[in-house]
Fold each of these.
Amino acid sequence: MKSFLRGVLLALVVVASIVAWAALPWPVLLALAVLFLLWMQLTRAGRQAGSATSVGVSTLPQRIGSSSVVVVGIAGVVAVLVSLLAMGVGYSEALSNSGSTDTAIVLRGGSASEVSSVLEHDAVLAIAEAPGIARDKAGKPIASPELVVAANLPLRDGSGDEGSVQLRGVGDQAWAVRPEVKIIAGRTFKPGLRELVAGKGAQRQFAGLAPGSQIKLGSQLWTVTGIFASGNATDSELWSDADVVASAYRRGSSRTSVFARLTGANAFDGFKAALKGDPRLQVDVQTTLDYFSKQSEQTSQAIRIIGIVVGVIMAIGAVFGALNTMFAAVAGRAREIATLRAIGFRGTPVVVAVMLETMLLALLGGVLGGLLAWLAFNGFAASTLAAGTTAQMSFQLHVTPALLWTGLKWALAIGFIGGLFPAVRAARLPVTTALRES
């Protein structure tokens, strides 16, 4: 019964420690680490733990094979976890960077995204004249009525398969609404002609998008006149004149959205109130920052869940690897541990020594895994379906310091679980039995 209660208590300690480790912010964890170092320096038990740890660490080169199992296993967990989470961060940043607080998007009321929205011509004209919209030097509202459709193009990977790309018909103020969009090769399209410009992300993903080439969209040929870059999700699109796109896809004078540059971020509330108060309009109004952030939430969350599930599965394997390694290490050092106990070392310093040795290996594995993820995947180009559409969106994986810290926390958590049980066994090892068996 006593053994059972000890086991339950140990399990509760593990669960409580992991929950606290995951929930506490880094300043609190740093303060706890400082307190632990002070304990090791100022108390007899702490100094004994330090001495026992130095002895154990000094023997690591003699156990390089078994120790590398822990390091490599944990490095694999961290590398995979950080890489998957970097995908979600990159996707979210690509969409979030597409918006700002001083630009607005207007959709038909109840529309979840542009592809499900339809704005009639009269509504488009009324929106463009709403108060709060900035105007150019000629006094013209900086508003771009836009039409989004999906088109198919052959992929650049040579497989012969086709992928879906988003073709956006824009108004003549689209460049003023999005000043971050710059032509980096060729020229922009001419209004009224079946010409288009391609984002650099779309050019990287689809074949035939070099300036001067012709591509077939539907049953019609279009000329690619240039390549643009924006540093956000727009890089995955094709742009052309809205009237030409509407004619080619038989959309009449309707548009899917209106993008507008406001006089400032503080003008949004007035702009929204004016549109909501117009009886001719049934529209939803959001800042582009809010719109694109919401568009990324579901996909980013799904990627994060997948990453955590995969990480947990791999972490279980790494924990068992650490358990086997440390149990073997404790068994091989039974006489050494028994000698320490015989000369006055209590159970706590022995537990701490074994735990610190395991955590050191886990730390090495976490650093190695984070480094591998950063070298292999930071800036790596990927693509997936854009939120709310069937078109593919290109983005880059982003291994952030926050993700590296998350990976390191996972590594140390694995080391804690993998070292705790062998450490407790070492502390409970009867001195006479250990000396006799060794």
Note: The longest helix spans residues 288-332.
Amino acid sequence: MTDTETNAYDIVVIGAGPVGENVADRTRAAGLTTAIVENELVGGECSYWACMPSKALLRPVIARAEARRVPGLRQSVQGPLDAPAVLAHRDEYTSHWKDDGQVRWLEGVGVDLHRGRGRISGPRTVTVTGPEGERRVLTARYAVAVCTGSRAALPDLPGLDAVRPWTSREATSAKAVPGRLIVVGGGVVAAEMATAWQALGSRVTLLVRGKGLLPRMEPFAGELVAEALTEAGADIRTGTSVTSVTRENGTVVAVTDRGDRIEADEILFATGRAPRTDDIGLESIGLEPGSWLEVDDSLRVHGHDWLYAVGDVNRRALLTHQGKYQARIAGAAIAARASGTAGLESHPWGAHAATADHAAVPQVVFTDPEAASVGLSLAEAEEAGHRVRAVDVDLSSVAGAGLYGDGYRGRARMVVDLEDEILRGLTLVGPGVGELVHSATIAVAGQVPVDRLWHAVPSYPTISEVWLRLLEAYRDN
């Protein structure tokens, strides 16, 4: 391999996580030659340090909690979790941080993998520096797609590097259960990792700068999750910021703005994300290194007709499933433009427009209880200028909830647009609600009228009967 070697493709994708893989899959399916560049593991953050390992840690936690609510079963699951077995299962789920299977998949669909750091070095050009320092130039006839994702953003605290704090990566890949764990943050990662490690045996202290957990969801979602975490033994302190962190003789010492001194074995900062765009050559095409990339609904970067930014890097929705959705849109748009298809922008709900990113983004938080939502919260809908009404239902009133387990606690909120009589959003909190959110996603994305939903009959006795209760409450009040 020499410095002057050049490889020509129709499409070059930077980043081989789920988003990059899906862009490559769609362009290959359209008959376009495609290369993908990856500096770490094929499969990306989701496969090895985020979605998959975190859910592998959380599944036994949630299954045990649900089993303990079932008469005749709870007596069999009263002991502690087998933490080594849970961690071993997590390791299996991440393929022990080896990407052989993902590489075979790329080979199977005909995508060329180039290992190394890819940097844009001009229009439609990516230079790859390989593991041994070798360099090759990849040229793209039609498009370059940036799918490099995001990384944990750490606060600017003096000496933080010396403390060796956990980020989401360490929290999902740790080899042992810390006796004491401080979690800084109140979002999804903080809530899920506090749930997992508390159940696995850590004494968790949650330090939340805001008023409560899950601030981007309806307020009751964070309240119910915080209530359950507190009952499980976690110490949650809201309105609290960390002013300093040190590690003394192996012990982490965090000092808060309230003057509290908290000691732990590890500290996890779950305080936001930053784009992985600082070292991909954006400056060579007049863009700011380290910036989020603004795109249109076909995921094309403004001002660059050959450059696409898909997934976390465009900051539209930092969720794997939404990134994969964008990847399908981008792949279709790239293929259509490559073939000279006209009228790409004329169909807002067509194959080439990521319309759902604006209206119907679903999310599940895998805590106990689960929290799930799609579309807008009541506050977001009102802020957007919609004339809406919120309808709330106690999930324990649904027959299926009682069968699910004793003492079922949960809540649902439907946000109805009073002008168009369609759903703008729905939020559910309670055991098992993650499996209900797709029906809500269909209702929101499909703009299904409320009077039509009335005829979508939920099966009895399931928790999905909450739909009937919500619609009854809307019609009767």
Note: The CA atoms of residues 255 and 261 lie 5 Å apart.
Amino acid sequence: MADTPTATAPNVSVEAPLWRALVGYRLLTTAYATGVFLYHHDTYGRPLVGVVYLAVLVCWTLATLRHVSSAERCTPVFLGCDFSLGVGGILLTPVADTTGAVNPSLPTIWVAGPVLALAIKHGWRWAAGASLVVGAANVLEEGGLTRDTVHNVLLVTVASIGIGYVVEVARASEHTLAEALKVEAATRERERLARDIHDNVLQVLAMVQRRGTEIGGGAAEIGRLAGEQEVALRSLVSTGPTAADAARDVAGSEYGSGAGAGGEVTRDLAELLAARAGTAVTFAGPGSPVAMPERAARMTDAAVAAALDNVRQHAGESASAWILLEDEPDAVLVTVRDDGPGVAAGRLAAAEREGRMGVSLSIVGRLHEVGGTAEVVSIPGQGTEVELRVPK
């Protein structure tokens, strides 16, 4: 029964491409570390140490690809083991390369993979700490600071901190967007409910108050209570939601279920508006059907009904109204005109400030929901004209 589509946060996280890239990085660097070892295997003093380590590295990498496919699967236990394997390979290098003839460590650039995983999972602070540990391991393996060691450590540190910072900013942006969409959804649902309340409940309460005052006696007390409830209800529907209200309203409302009409189903607006014609209402439109998306047609028809209700309420039962439907090339134009006394300048804005949301919600709000516009032109003594324009 909802009139508006659900506003939801995007389901695809900015982190997903980073995790996919990390999977590819681990595979490529594993192949690279294996290739470097095979190329220099005759140079190692204890090549068997390198063979055992790289066999473990290859098996570990292939067996844990699933763990680096998402943040949920990249558990702290896995990160600890992964990082330990990389740092352990660096410290094990002097045992395999007893002469120090081979420059790269056994895991080579594979060791940056665990650091990047920490950056994506926990942010730049963890990445910075892990980079410093890797750097200290490289210094111990080399026996001191060298130009290559400094370059490698800086490269890993800058890359991991940069990625970690970008991920943190992206997460904050996604959270802000989700909260904003919740507020927007709750606001639009509150406006929809306010329109329905205005079209039905508030008008009934106003009529009870008016008739009770006219009758007098016990009915006057009922009218007074109805008037108090009308004021309280107008205040409620004209109050915007807070962020906390938004989350609660969206979670419990029918609007949050995503129900709504799609653009594939069409409705003849001329047929809907023609049904509004009567003794005091004249309809004029094209001879052919005016097909519109069903939701847009229903919202436009409801806005016209609200305009006619305003004519009856403010211009009186004897006032006449005319509905003109025009099917233009780029839009559908509906004009509702009456011969009532008109509205004084500034009265509509004052009514909205007082909580009387008939025009702003029941007419302008409905057209805004379907991407249209509504304009009210009134000259005291010359009637009121409401122009509704819905783009195709």
Note: The chain is about 60% helix and 10% strand.
